[in-house]
Amino acid sequence: MKTFRLLLRRVSLKANARIFRPRWRLRNVTLQVTAGERIGMMGANGAGKTSLARVMVRLDRPSRGRLKRRPRRSRVMLIMQRPEEHFVAPTVRDEIAGYARRRPPVVELDRLLALVGLDPALGDRAPRVLSSGQQRAVSIACGLATQPALLLLDEPMAGLDGPSRAQVMDALRRVSETRDMAIAIISHHPDDLLGWAQRLWIMDGGQLVYDGAFRAAPLAALTQTLDAQTPSVFLALRQLEATGYQFAPEIYDQTDAAAIAHLLNEGVAP
């Protein structure tokens, strides 16, 4: 079986090709995605994050550039923001089954529910009566039912409280550990990606201004992306490193505040 690879080469996308001097949603984006990668995507509103995801899943056709998938029949699935608003099936199992090519047996549907951290007993319930965190987990199971090589999630933590955000990320960690698929998460906040993302894309003005290790994200690009009034553990860690403070790199693999504090206390001040 061939290894999955998605390649974008100098891809640009116009907002509206019919108007005079249309705005470019994407400008000369070049990147490659391979199986098993864990990618975070950040950028301010209008930076081009969702536009890039729509091109990758072929909902929008590039105005310029090339997009290739290997193997050609590989599936790329995009879970849009607030997917629970589009639930239509009477039960959770029916909702998930609706995304598969053929209806899976109950045991397979229950396996997907367990993978995203849900009790299979919820399979007979109506998806709209579940908690917000449970609904997002169901949407991830729906995406998995398509058997994608790349799963894209647009702001999966949007509108969720702390426990529900943790539930969603726990589900994605289990998927990353058990499935050889690439996963890319669009997020406004890097703290949501702590302990999960290996690679980071930062979009600005339709351009990919950073593509590299999550833990090495440049301060200039981060500060442009983040609201100055929004506290960020990740940004604070990068600022400390910029001053010469040295700590174990695995600090970026932690999600627990106590674990981060412990590694900081063991660090070396400049």
Structure description:
Strand 8 and strand 9 form a beta hairpin. The protein has eight helices and nine strands. Helix 3 (106-115) packs across helix 4 (132-145) and helix 4 (132-145) runs parallel beside helix 5 (162-178). It has a domain at 5-75 and 148-216: P-loop containing nucleotide triphosphate hydrolases (Rossmann fold, 3-Layer(aba) Sandwich), CATH 3.40.50.300. The strands form two sheets. It has a six-stranded mixed sheet, with helices on both faces. The protein has a three-stranded antiparallel sheet with strand order 2-1-4, covered by helices on one side. It is an alpha/beta fold. It has helices at 49-56, 92-97, 106-115, 132-145, 162-178, 219-225, 233-242, 257-265; strands at 5-14, 24-34, 38-42, 64-70, 76-79, 150-154, 182-186, 199-204, 207-213. Helices cover 30% and strands 22% of the residues.
Write out the CATH superfamily name of the domain at 5-75 and 148-216: P-loop containing nucleotide triphosphate hydrolases
Number of helices: 8
> Which architecture of the domain at 5-75 and 148-216 per CATH?
3-Layer(aba) Sandwich
Low-confidence stretches: none
Q: Look at the helices and sheets and give the structural class.
A: alpha/beta
Q: Give the strand order, joined by hyphens, for the main sheet.
A: 5-6-7-3-8-9
> What's the shape?
globular
In quaternary terms, these chains amount to single chain
CATH class of the domain at 5-75 and 148-216 equals Alpha Beta
Helix content: 25-40%
How are the elements arranged and paired?
Layout: E1 5-14, E2 24-34, E3 38-42, H1 49-56, E4 64-70, E5 76-79, H2 92-97, H3 106-115, H4 132-145, E6 150-154, H5 162-178, E7 182-186, E8 199-204, E9 207-213, H6 219-225, H7 233-242, H8 257-265
Parallel strand pairs: 3-7, 3-8, 5-6, 6-7
Antiparallel strand pairs: 1-2, 1-4, 8-9
